[in-house]
Structure prediction request, 331 residues.
Amino acid sequence: MEINEQIKKETDPIYQKVSKVIPEIEWAFHAPLIHKINILKKQKNAVVLAHNYQTPEIFHAVADIAADSLALAVEAEKTNADIIILCGVHFMAETAKLMNPNKKVLLPDMGAGCSLASSITGKDVRMLKEKYPGVPVVTYVNTSAEVKAESDICCTSANAVRVVESLGTDKVIFLPDQYMAKYVQTKTKVQIISWVGTCIVHEKFSAQEIKDIKKQNPGIKVLTHPECPPEVIAASDFTGSTSGMSNYVKKNQPKKVMLVTECSMSDNVQVDNPNVRFIRPCNLCPHMKRISLQKILECLEKETNEILIPEIIIKKAQKAVERMVAVGRSH
Ligand code: 13P
Ligand code: SF4
Prediction:
């Protein structure tokens, strides 16, 4: 695609912002798509909600809101747009639909799944409820709507401890991430009964890797996501949701930082924090990386890949996500 003067005029200011993380040769392909998407968004009254793991050309050039999964759910509820394009994975698009069922929610690639969401089914949750009668079920949002429908309340990495403690019980079933469950257990006296799911991105990091990086980079701040294994979290300086990590960098401006999470996070946070040096061993999420500008444009043009959830599931799952949003974010 050729960049004409009009496209150049409109996209050059964006490129100046992201030039440190996107090579100019790549921008020549992105610019015409960005231009088209931004025009079409206005014409169709569509909003683009993007997760922090989306690539910088999506995060910085077409997203109206770019945030962690809790904020994306809140924004989906608040929006006045007719169409929500969710740039992230399937469970995030389903959550947007649950928060605002009258909107048309589109996911640019229906194959964008999540290893945590696929680790558990509604039937598994019913089996656990039978095994632990009366124990409330707290479900991480990284699950299908069907699993949420079997749950008492949802949580994200930004409010897991707060949600667990909000129930006032001495025991909870916490699904499906075994590492997140272990992390929450270190922060609360409530007994946590967990499942066996893991995130294929965060489980790959090791404590040895963190120790080596710290040795090679004295003074570096290492930030982890709570989906990391316990020994990785223990070797780090701060643990939080994707937006929690981003806010830490913004507030503390460390000289050097390592974000122990998906690769695009460092690129996205780097753009707004030019004086911070990012040390980048990272892992790619193959699901998040299915979303591209080309697919966003196609999905917006044709209004394909609509998220549809049976009414009965919506009614039950909605209660669990709305309860989560009412609890709010941990401080
Ligand atoms: P956040 O809720 O922290 O944005 O994380 C979502 C996710 O999928 C992390 O792997
Ligand atoms: Fe799921 Fe992990 Fe990808 Fe997040 S990074 S969407 S938890 S597979």
Summary: Residues 52, 68-69, 142, 156-157, 199, 225, 227, 241-242 surround 1,3-dihydroxyacetonephosphate (ligand 1) (CB under 6 Å). The domain at 202-278 is CATH 3.40.50.10800 (Rossmann fold).
